[in-house]
UniProtKB/TrEMBL annotation:
Domain N-acetyltransferase: 11-147
Pfam families reported in the protein's UniProt record: Acetyltransf_3 (PF13302)
Single GO term (MF): acyltransferase activity, transferring groups other than amino-acyl groups
Keyword Translocase part of the UniProt annotation: no
Keywords, comma-separated and alphabetical: Transferase
UniProt protein name: Acetyltransferase
Keyword Nucleotide-binding: no
Xref: PANTHER family: GNAT FAMILY, PUTATIVE (AFU_ORTHOLOGUE AFUA_3G00765)-RELATED-RELATED (PTHR43792), N-ACETYLTRANSFERASE DOMAIN-CONTAINING PROTEIN (PTHR43792:SF1)
The organism's place on the tree of life at top rank: Bacteria
Residue numbers spanned by region Disordered: 148-174
Length: 174
């Protein structure tokens, strides 16, 4: 079994997924306005299966989505990490910030940390982000991270998506 590391930034702790933050993630996935760019609305049992798949993803690949913990409040603020399930074109850096934590730069800080870890520790040389067309907030964040829109493709889970290419390890901001 692959344990997820803990990555600390100035304000955040990225930790492996566990049950302590499941309720916050289930609330996110039950809200159609909130989960639109991440996946379909799911009830708790389906969300639990997705959460368990994320834990399994860590054990299969040695990486997955971290839970973002806000160190000041001690509460889960979202998820961010490297995701590459069957059917994905290649590993992606993905992010979700829960509603109470939006607008604070948390996704940017977490994505920089996760991407840096993927490059420095895992030895990855390229990453993408898969973004639904029209998701202007994620497009803006990808741009801020130095990524550019490379192409559109048919995501097996999400349908039409844009693949945004991140700069490689030598060019990426840290």
């Amino acid at each position: 079994m692959t344990p997820a590391p803990v990555i600390e930034t100035a304000r955040l702790a990225l930790r492996g997924p566990g049950l302590a933050e499941f309720d916050a993630f289930a609330a996110f996935h039950a809200d159609p306005a909130r989960c639109l760019g991440f996946g379909p609305v799911m009830d708790r049992p389906k969300t639990w299966r997705w959460w368990a798949a994320n834990i399994g993803h860590w054990h299969i690949h040695g990486y997955g989505y971290f839970t973002i913990w806000d160190r000041q409040s001690g509460r889960p603020a979202g998820i961010c990490g490297i995701w590459n399930p069957e059917g994905w074109p290649e590993p992606e850096v993905g992010w979700v910030v829960f509603e109470a934590f939006e607008g604070r730069g948390i996704a940017y800080e977490a994505a920089l940390a996760a991407r840096g870890w993927a490059y420095d520790t895992l030895g990855m040389t390229t990453l993408t982000s898969n973004i639904k067309p029209g998701n202007t907030r994620s497009q803006a964040l990808a741009t801020r991270l130095g990524a550019h829109h490379e192409r559109s493709y048919d995501n097996p889970e999400m349908g039409d998506e844009e693949l945004w290419r991140h700069p490689g390890p030598a060019e990426a901001q840290r």
